[in-house]
Amino acid sequence: MGERKSWAEKRAEVMSRPGAGAAYDAARIRFELGTAVRQRREELGLTQSDLAVRAGLKQPAVARFEAGGTMPSIPMLERLAEALELGLTVEFHRLPEAG
Questions:
Q1: What is the DSSP letter of 45?
Q2: Is the separation of the CB atoms in 71 and 26 below 8 Å?
Q3: What is the pTM of this model?
Q4: How big is the chain by its Cα radius of gyration, in Å?
């Protein structure tokens, strides 16, 4: 049998593959957006079903979004922002310079 790798070694191996960094960044963005929506929904005392009605969605779509399972379009973010009584701002940021 092969030698067992630590989590750090396995992660480094996976992240060294072409495109892995971009995939990781996309997953991070989905997770952060989903977390922000869930937190605001809970602040407002809404259920996923309540939010779905307000945004013109179905409850499973809200659940998938909150779990980071989908990358939303700008129109979808606009619908969610309005339903959550928020404004939406989309920004570009400079990437750190490679050193």
A1: T
A2: yes
A3: 0.77
A4: 18
Contacts of 58 by beta carbon, 8 Å cutoff, 6+ apart: 52
Residue 84: burial class (beta carbons within 10 Å; 0-12, 13-18, 19+): buried
Tens of pLDDT, residues 55-84 = 999 999 999 999 999 888 999 999 999 999
How far apart are alpha carbons 30 and 13 in whole angstroms?
A: 23
Written as six digits, the tokens of 62 are 């809200």
The distance from CA 47 to its chain's CA centroid, rounded to whole angstroms, is: 19
DSSP state of 98: P
CA–CA distance from 69 to each of 3, 46, 55 (Å)?
A: 33, 20, 18
